Amino acid sequence: MSTNPAVTAAFGHRYAVFFRNATLSSGSATDIYADRVQSVEPTATHNTTKYYELGRVAPIGATTDPTQTRIVCEENLHNSEIDMYLAGVNPTSGSGYYATNVVGQTNTAYVVQRNDSDVVVGEIGVGNLRVSEIQYRFVINGACTVQYTLEGTSGSYYTSDFVHSTWGPQDNTSPGGIHGKDARVSFATPGAGTKAYRLQSFTIRVAYPVQHVKELGTRQEIGVLNDSPDITVDFDLLQADHQPNDVFFGTSNDGGVTKYNLTDPQTRDIFINVYDPDLAEGASVVKSFRIDNCKPSSNTPTQARVRQLATSRWSLMSISEDTSGTGGLTVSKTEIGS
What we know:
The chain is mostly beta strands. The protein has one domain (12-46, 65-161, 177-332). The chain has helices spanning 81-86, 245-248, and strands at residues 15-21, 32-33, 37-45, 48-51, 61-64, 68-76, 96-98, 107-114, 120-139, 145-152, 154-158, 183-187, 199-207, 210-213, 223-226, 230-238, 249-254, 257-265, 268-275, 285-303, 311-318, 329-332. The strands form 4 sheets. It has a 16-stranded antiparallel sheet that branches. Strands 4-5 form a two-stranded antiparallel ribbon.
């Protein structure tokens, strides 16, 4: 570093994130400014191998594999702007997206820095990105979040001629965040009759296995491909009555006694409605989810400890789709019916 930096340090409010989708964007004018972002972290991995030889103690050289780039971005759940956009669906005119929409979509991410005078002084661009994972997390006493992980092949650090030299436009109408008290989960069919009670946390994980493509004679990766989604659900709840065993396990009769058979897992659809926290309770859906054919992969029927509330933990996987082309997950701006 040849000179003392002009910027002493920078808080997070001096950074912003833009996304560009190859299907929806033709240039910076159509990039989206990502609202409600809580954290962003671009990284570059340079896998290096050192070489040794007989008769010499020290290494004699090294080679470096083609660089792999990645960016992880987390937002407070508030609308369907970012996830729809990364899926190649216009977040303004579209009604929602399917898990399969994400496959094959190429994105670019930009992390822009400004100084205390609100002048852009740096920009990191990460390109040829494919989504490798989306996680929706619903929690009590905290904001529900969405985390995106994208993997790519290129990265640049701009110190001038910035792609984005201006800020925004920022969203001043959507909620700043939505707590778990406004997220309702239902098993089997939507509605109060199958509402999941005593939930403490609930996570939807949509994983897209990625393949980094390389070739002889080329020092950079050729590209990244993402494959069909694997959808899993994890949740824990306070132990109360016999739920949700009555939903996810069949019954058996032993000597005239009916009981839930913990070795007979059942398949159920799961529905989640997220409501506008600024309106009456349960009055207006801002985001709705349907996860098809979820079957328990593991569960702890109860975990009890001294002077603590007893809990139950569950993990499920979506084993198939109900509607062809959805990939097992439908995300909508409006309530999804059965």
